Amino acid sequence: IMDKSSYTQEAQRQLSNTKFYQPQSTDPTTKYQKELQDLMKDFPGKVHEQILQNTPQEPQPVTFYLLLKIHKQGNPGRPIVSSINTFSNPML
Questions:
Q1: pLDDT above 80 (res 77)
Q2: In whole angstroms, what is the distance from residue 9 CA to residue 15 CA?
Q3: Domain of 55?
Q4: What pLDDT was estimated at residue 90?
Q5: Nearby residues of 41 by Cβ (< 8 Å), 6 or more positions away
Q6: Cβ neighbours of residue 85 closer than 8 Å, sequence gap 6 or more
Q7: Which of 12, 15, 73, 85 is 20 to 30 A off residue 64, Cα-Cα?
Q8: Are 82 and 62 in contact, with CB atoms under 8 Å apart?
Q9: Nearest C-alpha neighbor of 63 from the set 15, 3, 13
Q10: What are the C-alpha distances in Å from 60 to residues 13, 35, 36, 79?
């Protein structure tokens, strides 16, 4: 079991890697949801309706967490980005 400060330190190490993650000054969720809705207007009726029906009305930003690799030296974390309840969830 990893203590909270070590977990936080590992998460910060992962998130500071700008090859994979970039800091955002604002939450882009609403902007991306609007762009997605505009794109959906081009889809045929039933597909458009189904995606709208399954899209959360109040989407949340993605959730980042780590699964610890306890079998490896230093217990590095495997980054997980969950898209549950996000604007793109119905398409996954």
A1: yes
A2: 10
A3: 29-91
A4: 60
A5: 48
A6: 56, 59, 60
A7: 73
A8: yes
A9: 15
A10: 24, 16, 15, 19
Quickly tell me which residue has 């700008």 as its tokens. Answer: 18
Alpha-carbon distances of 57 from 9, 43, 54, 70, rounded to whole Å: 34, 19, 9, 38
Tokens (6 digits) for 39: 């794109």
Distance, CA of 48 to CA of 9 (rounded, Å): 43
Strands (E), 1-92: 63-68, 77-82
Which amino acid appears at position 18 of this protein? T
Residue 91 to residue 6: CA distance in whole angstroms: 35
Number of structural domains found in the chain: 1
Q: What is the pLDDT of residues 37-76, one digit of tens each?
A: 788 778 777 777 777 777 777 778 889 999 988 888 888 8
Answer whether residue 5 is part of any domain: no
Question: Using the 8-state DSSP alphabet, how is residue 1 labeled?
Answer: -
